[in-house]
Design brief:
Distance between the termini: 17 Å
Length: 203
């Protein structure tokens, strides 16, 4: 799952949303310096990643993307699933996507001092470019992949990836449509359990 899905799956608690947003930037036991709800969001992020990575439907999507991205195919699928969530947002939320994103930007802006260093450098352009909204457009999806090829170790295989996606778009969507209700159910159970297990606390 990528940013939009992680935030959506956090429920309405703003600290949990924030913790889930910064989850990839908080390693090992560094989460312990935050308040209880931010910790819950960080650990929920890890639970979501673990559940997603082991899900057979997601693995099918990753396998199909692997000729383009190899070991990075999972990251590309995460972003593609955010595309589907943004495009079909009204299937999952009664709130407008624009309102949801505006509220989340406000949540982050109120907690800038709590952002890890790497997250702070990432967040300003992330908010400025309204990345969570533009995911709905496949051109934005391409742009994200291209930027990741510049700023991360992910290879520049956008052309190959788009050929795979255009050929199999409906199949990828069917897999997302099967998987996403299941992870919604999974995270709701985790959020309702106030003593949520600390998944991979050393990660």
């Amino acid at each position: 799952m990528n940013f939009l899905a992680h935030i959506y799956l956090s429920g309405e608690n703003e600290d949990i949303q924030f913790g889930n947003y910064i989850g990839d930037f908080v390693k090992g036991k560094n989460y312990k310096k935050y308040n209880d709800d931010i910790i819950k969001g960080i650990l929920l992020h890890r639970e979501i990643d673990s559940y997603t990575d082991s899900h057979p439907v997601v693995r099918n999507s990753i396998k199909r993307m692997r000729p383009a991205y190899g070991k990075y195919a999972g990251a590309a699928v995460d972003i593609l699933y955010d595309h589907f969530l943004a495009k079909y947002w009204t299937d999952y939320s009664s709130a407008k996507l624009e309102d949801f994103v505006t509220n989340f930007h406000h949540t982050v802006s109120e907690r800038l001092g709590k952002l890890p260093d790497k997250a702070r450098r990432f967040t300003s352009p992330f908010i400025k470019n309204k990345r969570l909204i533009c995911y709905a457009d496949l051109n934005c999806f391409k742009d994200v992949l291209q930027k990741m090829a510049i700023y991360t170790s992910m290879p520049d295989k956008v052309k190959d990836a788009m050929q795979i996606i255009n050929k199999n778009y409906n199949l990828f969507y069917e897999e997302f449509e099967t998987f996403f209700p299941e992870i919604i159910s999974f995270t709701r159970k985790k959020l309702s359990n106030q003593s949520m297990p600390q998944c991979n606390p050393e990660r």
